[in-house]
Records
---
Amino acid sequence: MNFIVNTLVPLIGKTFFGVVLILLLIIIVVFVNMLIRIKDYKDIKDSLAELKKDFINFMSKEKNKRKKMALFSGLTILLVIVVAALVTIGNEKPTVEVISPTNLSIQKTWEEMTIQWTPVSGTIMYYVSIYPAGQKYNTGYDAYSFYVDGNKSVVHINPQKYIIGYGKYQVSVSTDVANIVEGTSTFYLVNQSGANPALSTLTPTTAPTPTLVPTQIPRPTTAPTPTLVPTQTPRPTTAGVHSSVHVLSAGYYHTIGLRRDGTVIAAGNNGDKQCETNTWEDIVDVAAGYSHTVGLKMDGTVITAGSNDYGQSDVSSWRDIIAVATRLGHTVGLKKNGTVVAVGDNTYGQCKVSSWGNIIAVAAGTNHTVGLKADGTVVATGSNADGECEVSGWNDIIAVAAGQSHTVGLRADGSTVATGYNGDGQCEVSIWADIVAVSAGAYHTVGLKADGTVVVAGSNDFDQCNISNWIDIISIKAGMYHTVGLKADGTTIATGFNEYGQCNMYGW
């Protein structure tokens, strides 16, 4: 099937090679027709003898000289065309198609893509993102995204490291002023034909299966005493407001927002100072845990705020990080070379990721860690008490999410899979379709559809699943018992447990 989709279809699309294929098909049909008429071995022998005799007679007659020359010339041309087609297929480079507006310049080679745009006066920084064409932009579905200093108007990237599938990808460059450029590019699968061998040679170990029961965070039965961030004022939990935030992360009892200017805002429980992120700058990604918050800086370093009871905030030595994830007591970082680092609670082996390689995304559950590989398979380590690490049979996965004791995978065709604890129906996602992003809470799972609506499965004890009226959503995140979303118009929305003010994103 891969050969048909990735080789024959593009080949037929080119008229030159299409003619060759048609001629070959005619020859095959004639040969098959001859075989159908042959009844036994004697018929085969006689048929071959007849063909040989006719060919010798044809070649021996002087009057057929011109016909012989035409025959040999035709065969030679056909052979050259077939060889040229095969060589071209084997060496075809990624192509680029630029659409309006025309102030985007993309130059592409197999190893590097250069993106250049018209600079905008007074811009602090640009936000460059590459994601599947035709999809609504959302951070949960990005193949790659990063910030560029406002003094620059050109970037160089290696698409082999970040593009994870076939097809067209949208390239957008935006600023805090306006979205200024767009274009589409066609990329090829990572590691195809041995590309980027440094990553493809690494193989992760099998995820361990501990028999220990993971530490469970009990569901609140009575409303706990809220500890609001001083600047927060309680608002309706589903209020939509205009926001400069473009990335959201939902923790246990707090919510984090990343602004386009690289600063961070927080709402919710601040008992361990996990919401004290107001001084952070140059941040490109955030992750909210139980009592700590993690921020990824533009230079690939990582900072944290909040508790360090398990060593989950010991990230000062990390370098070359391109993504971060956290949940309860451990923090995970994905390095740009495809390896993974982790610190914090390792009671169930959730930090045993040093042997992983070729990873393009990570997710942290309560006591387990999940990694998505460039080939679409998934690895996991940590507690497997409820089967949350049983992902070895998954394939064609483009995104992963980890909850308290369950794991969710998004396939390239928009379908979803889940494994682990299903006591509240949080793993009943097999009927979902057209999904572009997934997120997992404690006992519920959230899916963002291509049309901007949202679907959920699992517990609704605290109204965390009351999202039936959400529309125009471009990003979703599931916290412990709450759900947050970012809309296409820049407003935020939230529902669920709000006793700590974690749903109060009014004014972001």
Note: The first strand starts at residue 96 and ends at 97.
---
Amino acid sequence: MNIDTTSLIRDMGMNAGLLCFLAALYSIVLSGLRHPDLGIRKARQRWLPWITGLMFGVTGILTMLVPLRMAEGVIVDARLVMAGLAGAYLSPLGAVLCAVVLGAYRLSLGGIGSGPAMVGIVLTTGIGWLWQRHRPYFSPQRFGALYDGVWLIGLGLSLAAGGMLAIQTLPPEIARAVTSRSWMAVVVIYPIGTVLLGFLLDNTQKLNQREETLEQTAETLKSMLAEARQAASVFVNSKDTIAIVQPDGTVLDVNPTYSNVLGYSREELIGKSSAVLRLDEGGEATFLRRVAQAIERDGRWHGELVRRRKNGEAFVSEVTIEGINDPDGVVRKWVSVGKDVTEQRRLEQALQQFGNYDALTGLSSRRLFAKELNATLQKSTGTTGILALCLLDIDQFKDLNEQWGQPLADQYLRVFAQRLRVETGPDNLIGRIGGDEFAVALKDCAHTEAALQRLEGLRQSLARTAVLDNVQLRLTCSAGVTFYPDDLGDADGLLRHADLALYAAKEQGKDRIAVFDVQQGQRLQARRHTAKLVEDALLQGEMELFFQPKVRISDGQVIGAESLIRWHHPERGLLAPGAFMDDIVGTPASGKLDYWVLDAAFKAGHTLVTQGCPLPLSINIAVPTLIDSQFQQEVARLLKRHPSLPQPFLEVELLETETFNDLSAVAYVIQGLDDLGVHCSIDDFGTGYSSLTYLQRLPAQIVKIDQSFVREMLDNERDRALVRGIVSLAHAFNRTVVAEGVETPAHAEALRDLGCDGLQGYGIARPMPLPDLIHWIRAWQPPPEWVGARQPVR
């Protein structure tokens, strides 16, 4: 090509000068944002998109006045580079303003190229915006020290491609001619211009950020002295025990609370080893090494210690130890902050004992036995042994109770349980399922015949004569047994099958063993049939949500409603979840139903808003659906789709029948939902599935007390104590407490006295369709005795 080198160099110099001038102006504008007056700074920030947009647009016009003449008929200017860089570096408003300025000027020039020029301006502005959005991807971890250069080159090539695409909007013959003459110049000039101006803009932004950092550092230094004074005040006045120690355990200083709690004076503690204050199983050196490793890895150690007061009394302390960095970055001191949690741990143990163990016999409750059995089944996967699950029922126990009374019957149950322990051995599972029914799980049986022989021997041993209060008692027992893995299923399924076999043994004349007939094909077919019917019901609109209100106990105000599924079965009428949910657990129909409930709850919430009754709603979701990767995204989509809903609107209740095999995954999802403004609750708390571990590890905001405890609390002191303990424990963890199963005003009054926050149950309202809920909300008046009622101090 015949190129006038002198003109080209001149034009390139002028364009480079314009780009440098723009970078200088950009730097001046950014530096003007760092004004000490907040009001002026905000005003300048509001004008920043307009100023920078005009700057980029005017500079683009100037580059159009001094284009680069690459050859005869080949003229390239940098307007599309300016439009693309505006999209890549400015706010959307600034980028649009730049595009408008460039487009207006180009339209004023007229000509056949006006249309393609407008397309190019819009296209390159959008390309720049997309590259701005994805710039975090170009990180030093992926591209090393050249990550900025890679991003700029990619942006420049993309702008060149956008410019070539715009040329194609010319008439075909003209487009081909222009493309053949200019493609090389565009591919070379656009990336060079992009890298040049982008490099200047990047450095301008980095310099501005450094200056801002210096100003912030100065402000930080000013506040450090005030913070130091405040820290000293916190140290002296804190209600937590605080100690400064060396990594070898030597005490350097303690606050007054530390001295008061442990009974030592400050002078007695300073310079002494902290080992005398703890009861360590592994010794001082082991403990200090464990703490040092945790601080080096995570920056802190957190755990519980058994400490010893000066008078020898032991207590449990929850302690956090953090390292204090010296100016050279080396940790030479630790700060230990602790609090006495002895009473809280005692309450937890009592609650755990109530929920997991039978008070009469000391055996595992049905809930705990099922949990332990599930764990055993998981461990036995892949082994060759057989597990025999047996349910035992005392045949003449009802007669014993009626003839000799409950005290003697209770003594016999304790004897029966003790014999079970001795005969079964420590390696197997035993539990009291209820009444006179017990469960035994024999592990690692060689074959079914050997297991049946052991169970028959056990049954005969249990039938030996017992002498209680000079009364000789010999009671036989019936047994129902099923074998795993011949009978595949979880703990609940195996218990149901063993119970069916026990029923068969009773029907056959008692005092014998009956084995469950698996009939796997029939059961699977029945489940498939139910799942198919549920999926068809969703498609045919047979499902409906009913709603049961929840009220705040302090003032009787309606605070939400629980969404409960109902099936309008064409043959069986209105069905509650208990009629079909168990049959679809673990099937695709369960997940489909959960997502239908989620969508229906949002639609109901929208209807409530339009009717002037905005109300938060809760839904029951199975754990497999909760941890599904699409669930959180669907919740976010629905929240965005319904911006008029009250905040917070949605509450997710974790189902009673679910066991959390992966607490980390559940906790992660709950935290993600919390970030979206969605609350979660632990449903049926206290029944065993919702253990104290879940309360500690799951960041759920609400605890719902199981209705079985609430319903009997007025007549059963054990249930009342359990409810009181759950309320206290939940409040200790800053959880809101809602009681289910409130059937009478007496229940409400008792729960109010115990400090419960919310109520739900037939005593408030039965589940009802959405139109009835709207009428109910409008007509609801809290009982007069609730209004102004004094709440217990929390």
Note: Residues 116 and 169 are 6 Å apart (CA to CA).
---
Amino acid sequence: MAALAACGSGTSRRDAPAAERAAASAPLRPVPWTVVWACRRLQRQARFPVLCPKALPQPTLGTFPEQPPSPVGVERLYGGAHGAPSGLSIGYGVPPYAGGSPPPGAAVLRPRPGENGPCCYLHFTIERIPGAGGAQAPGQRTRLGGRLGTLDRRPDRSYGVYAHHLRFVFSSGGSTYLATLHAYAREQETIAILSQIVQGLRPAATIPLRPPGAIAGRRAYSGGVGTWSIAPQGRVIWVARVGIEQSVDPTPFGAPAVVSVDTGTGHASERFRVGSRTWAVAASSRAIWAASVGGSRAGGVVARLDPRSGRVVRTAQVGERLGALAVVGKELWAADAGRTRLVSLDPTTLRPTGRALEVGSVPARLATGDARTLWVTEPLRNQVVRVDTHTRRITARISVGDRPFGVAATARDVWVANVLDGTVSHIDSRSGRVVATVRVDRNPYAVAVAKGTVWVANEGDGTVTRLDPKGKGEKRVRVGGEPVDICVAAGGVWTTDEASGTIVRVASVPTH
């Protein structure tokens, strides 16, 4: 959930109130239902009031460039002489490495210093500890989040995984609690966020629990969280559900799986499990393909799935980290982010159909508007690559906005969602020129085209923006949560909320 990182300190010990005033720079959002569920489950077994955060920072970037933000994970903490549950550890992503030799893959984990913050990772813990109010705890007596306690900012390796956490001890309702937050690059920002979270701590029983549910024709629940990728097939939408790596066990959060969603009834059914984490799906009229990592085989795995029999027909080991799949003509293409290349496979046998194409940077998402051309986003280069799949050559590199991710294409137009500057780039597919840049909401992650109309899923604001064929903003639909993918299926536009695990119908579209 969170790994160790050595974070610097640039704030004096008397600046805690100033840090609290800076909290507005890191707005928090209500915690997902999974956190509330874990808090309430712990309360049933604990003999003390369990405190639960009402709000947390929202991730905007994934652990790797080819991934959307990770779902929030939850696990229990145990303490005391008998190892009884004492609290919860909550977080997402991993911190950047600091000092020494970077771990494998670290060069692409955090390429920018500004990403050492809540955009990319969080590790917060809250637990009950022995003591009386924290008066004897090491650190400075101060008020944080409206609570009087002791704040300790000193790195201390004796704390193990909490060595680089800021630690705040306080009392509430006759019990003593320890709240910790992994340090970010700027200590003032860390204190500000910790203050906000502490201010929002409430008894678990007082926070409403609203688990997602299905509404026929309007919303479906995938049976878990981390719904990163969706693909339409008739009236069914196939969902790649990554689940949560670390969680309270057992949970209703859902293991990694490929799930089918009936758009008419809202019924979801877990159909396939491939590898340890399924990141992407693609579909044709007769077959489904899934890209996964881990499991019993090292590296990436592509699987061909039969929706009629419910069997995994064939699997093949491909690359390292597979971020996306796309069917182009008679080939299945996979984005091998771990080796910065594209791989083409026979859709039936999953055997390579030619040499891999090196693209030079991490490929994120794929799209095609005809039987020959493949469009690839490269988030770290702020580019879109046009590939001729017949000649296996890159025919254009097009500069777009900041951190391009989602892409959709027709025979004449290409649309690219730029995550960090909140824009969509409109490209003429023939000339390879950017003909327009349209501002949408925060952190657009995915884009889809239906009958000339463009739909954009904005993860940062929980909205979907509709653009007319000329690229002008027409309509904003609030769907809530964190929409990270979008598709057109069964006469409607559907988006996925990776935080709640739901698939939501945004609007109807003409079928003729």
Note: The longest strand covers residues 84-92.
